[in-house]
Amino acid sequence: MTDAKPSARPAPERRAAYKAFERIQLRWNDNDIYGHLYNATYYELFDCAMTAWLSRNGLIGANGRPTNVVVENGCVFFAEIRYPGEVEVGLRLGRLGSSSVRFEMALFREGEDTAAAQGFFSMVRVDDDDHRPRPIPEAQRAVYATILR
């Protein structure tokens, strides 16, 4: 007999848990041989939504500056997503540190209120020359705070 360990697997969240949303059209090549979204595609969708939000809110420029380096990411899958269609990516900030942020995101299938997948990206703001961590300026912190959990 083995000892059962409690699962650290989170439960799928609802749309109301997220502060901002990005709608993304799925593409044929997002599917894998099994007919559902390839697992790496989830990370692409999270990254596209996060980058769109950062850009629209003036937190990254056309030249990609300031530099935000991803130091950790992850994803938990709850339900299949398939082409064709659209998904909505819910975004919020789970943590706002002195030089880092943790974006928490969820993928929602069209017309559904419960997440099909949830993920996160932790990023550190670094100097463009020496790539050492740099504090997030107060004006940028105020923008990030609008989606803080």
What does it look like?
The protein is of the alpha+beta class and 149 residues long. The chain has a five-stranded antiparallel beta sheet. It is globular. It is built from two helices and five strands. It has one domain: Hotdog Thioesterase (Thiol Ester Dehydrase, Chain A), CATH 3.10.129. The mean pLDDT is 93. The longest helix is centred in the N-terminal third of the chain and has 18 residues, at 39-56. The protein has helices at residues 39-56, 138-145; strands spanning 20-25, 67-77, 86-96, 100-109, 117-126. Helix content is 17%, strand content 32%.
Give descriptors for this structure.
single chain, 149 residues, alpha+beta, Thiol Ester Dehydrase, Chain A
Main β-sheet: number of strands, strand sense, barrel status? Answer: 5 strands, antiparallel
Number of domains: 1
Contiguous runs where pLDDT drops below 50 for at least 5 residues: none
Q: What is the correct CATH architecture?
A: Roll
Radius of gyration: 17 Å
Strand content: 25-35%
Quick overview of this protein structure:
A hairpin with a 3-residue loop joins strand 3 (86-96) and strand 4. Helix content is 17%, strand content 32%.
